[in-house]
Amino acid sequence: MVDAAHGLGLMIFLDVVYNHFGPDGNYLGAYAPAFFRNDRHTPWGSAIDFGRREVRRFFTENALYWLMEYRFDGLRLDAVHAIGAPDWLDELAAEVRATVEPGRHVHLVLEHDGNAAHHLRNGFDAQWNDDAHHVLHVLLTGEADGYYADYADRPAERLARCLAEGFAYQGEPSAYRKGELRGAPSADLPPTAFVLFLQNHDQIGNRPFGDRLTTHAQAEAIEAAVALQLLCPQIPLIFMGEEGASTTPFLYFTDHHGELARAVREGRRRNSPASRVSATARWSRPFRIPTTCARSNAAGR
Q: What are the pLDDT digits (tens) for 61-110?
């Protein structure tokens, strides 16, 4: 696949998840319990112990494996704010830069909910700009629940700061996070250090019904936002289907069963900003997560 993409003149990145293992079918804790910390937990279970040299080496070697053996052109590291030893990220970037052949372009991209900027000065190329997405979403839809509440006040001003300086929150208190200071100064970074998107797999898939922006924002407003996204100097990310203004839902899908399936459903209900919009009739239908069984039954009908 990578070779085929390269033959067409395309780069290909791999999304890697180093902050947790899956909640089902993961037996690493049974035969290597030292891989995890007992004193720290994440939404996905016990935290991985990045304080251990062997654990750090395991994930560093994994990154090098994808880049050197499979020849991926870059990695996007998922939710690195959940990694308990942020210095490992800089260690990883340094080793990647030292290992990759001179002249070869390899891109390292982060997702970090805390708007940490220092990794972008230490070997990482870019970071997903959640602030820009959130404020554009508020402007386009009027939604202001959950984390969108942090952007409902002076949204145009916050958008201007995103376009000029990268992050909207650069150390200011977040009301959604109960006054916690969020972010770090980012104005010195180049615009290409930020990835700008209107939709992505998280922001659509984590909505209760997987509804896309095209179903709850005016077409003219979306067109203006797309023009801004494509013409501004930040790196545009186009979510699959956006190129044709798709309205097909992108649903969160699992094959969990029993108590785990119920726990995931309730957790998603609590954490989804859109699920708290009670004044709109569209959220009144039952909240479900598609599963293999549900899909099979639907196909049978």
A: 999 999 999 999 999 999 999 998 999 999 999 999 999 999 999 999 99
Respond yes or no: is residue 202 known to be catalytic.
Answer: no
Catalytic member of 49, 111, 125, 150: 111
Answer yes or no: 78 catalytic: yes
Catalytic residue among 73, 78, 91, 95: 78
pLDDT tens per residue across span 238-256: 999 999 999 999 987 777 8
Query: DSSP readout, the chain?
Result: -HHHHHHTT---EEEE--S---SSS--HHHH-GGGEEEEEEETTEEEE-TTSHHHHHHHHHHHHIIIIIS--SEEEE--GGG-S-THHHHHHHHHHHHHSPTT---EEEE--TT---GGGGTT--EEE-HHHHHHHHHHHH---SGGGGGGSSSHHHHHHHHHHHS-S-SSEEETTTTTEEE----TTS-GGGEEEES--HHHHHTSTT---GGGTS-HHHHHHHHHHHHHSSSEEE--TTGGGT--S---------HHHHHHHHHHHHHH-GGGG-TTSGGG-SPP----HHHHHHHHH-
Rounded to two decimals, the pTM is 0.88
